[in-house]
Design a protein that fits this description.
Blueprint: H1 3-14, H2 29-50, H3 54-77, H4 83-108, H5 115-137, E1 146-148, H6 152-168, E2 176-178, E3 183-185, H7 186-201, E4 206-208, H8 221-236, H9 238-262, H10 276-279
Antiparallel strand pairs: 1-4, 2-3
Helix pairs in contact: 2-3, 2-4, 3-4, 3-6, 4-5, 4-6, 5-7, 6-7, 6-9, 8-9
Length: 284
């Protein structure tokens, strides 16, 4: 018997109770707790829409949007990022900002348009799925300062905000929007907004991501005053102010795209990388 074999046998005889166990892989509670909260907001919005309580459905979507904006930042601040968390976040976003707004829009007004209504709702839902899938695969090559296409929470906010605004003004999804000299059919307005929100998600138009804002850095005192002023403005009439903000944001990407093109600058937000085949067809 060799010396090495004798040594291994003697060590096992001395410590027969020692058993080597693999370390179990777990998940981080804090960021995934916010993700689950956002998922509940989307599920709550769907249930409220089925019950005809569209104001509460809009609140569910906006609550999910707030929680979605926090889970990633909290994960980075606490160093609890994980592949599981990223996949969980995408699946929750598909429910809260893909399926939920499409169903809410259909139940509120698109259902009166027949096939056109469910086609618009499906296009929105499909574009949300495509946008989230593209975001996941292009994370490494996209300029962090911008989103490639309208982010799904903002698209959901456009749809839910429009419903919230008109519902607050006592309009129904099947009524006529009276503008004085003429009126507009609300279902067709919902149709146009739903298609615009969905298709803008899958464009290459750059939308500012706000990711370069550092929460840990000090800011001038005037910034805090402006934040307080913004909160006060929202409090004047939340449906109008919130919807107006997302309308402006939903158009800002096209303004940035036009300005860059006029200046002769690159309009794509795809950064230069070594993965040449991955970027084919992305620069437009």
């Amino acid at each position: 018997m060799h010396d090495g074999e004798q040594a291994s046998i003697s060590q096992s005889d001395k410590h027969p109770e020692v058993v080597v166990r693999k370390r179990r892989k777990g998940i981080y509670i804090l960021p995934n707790l916010f993700t689950l909260g956002g998922l509940f907001g989307g599920f709550y919005a769907i249930v409220m829409a089925m019950d005809g309580r569209f104001d509460q459905a809009a609140v569910g979507v906006f609550s999910a949007m707030i929680l979605d904006s926090l889970d990633g930042r909290i994960a980075r601040m606490t160093n609890t990022q994980s592949a599981f968390g990223e996949q969980m976040d995408s699946l929750a976003d598909m429910v809260s900002f893909g399926a939920a707004p499409a169903l809410i829009a259909y139940e509120w007004g698109l259902s009166t348009l027949g096939r056109w209504g469910w086609v618009a709702a499906f296009v929105y839902c499909a574009c949300a799925a495509l946008r989230l899938a593209r975001f996941n695969v292009n994370t490494a090559v996209v300029d962090k300062r911008f989103f490639q296409g309208l982010p799904s929470p903002a698209a959901a906010a456009l749809v839910a905000g429009f419903i919230w605004l008109l519902n607050d003004a006592d309009y129904t999804g099947t009524g006529l929007l009276d503008l004085g000299l003429f009126g507009l059919q609300i279902p067709w307005l919902m149709f146009i907004l739903t298609l615009y929100s969905g298709l803008t998600m899958v464009t290459n138009v750059p939308f500012y991501s706000f990711k370069d804002i550092q929460m840990k850095k000090s800011v001038p005192f005037a910034v805090i005053v402006l934040i307080a002023l913004g909160i006060g403005v929202i409090g004047l009439h939340p449906p109008i102010v919130v919807f107006a903000f997302f309308i402006a944001y939903g158009l800002s990407g096209y303004a940035v795209h036009a300005w860059r093109r006029a200046k002769g600058q690159q309009t794509s937000v795809i950064a230069t990388s070594l993965d040449e085949p991955e970027e084919r067809g992305l620069h437009k």
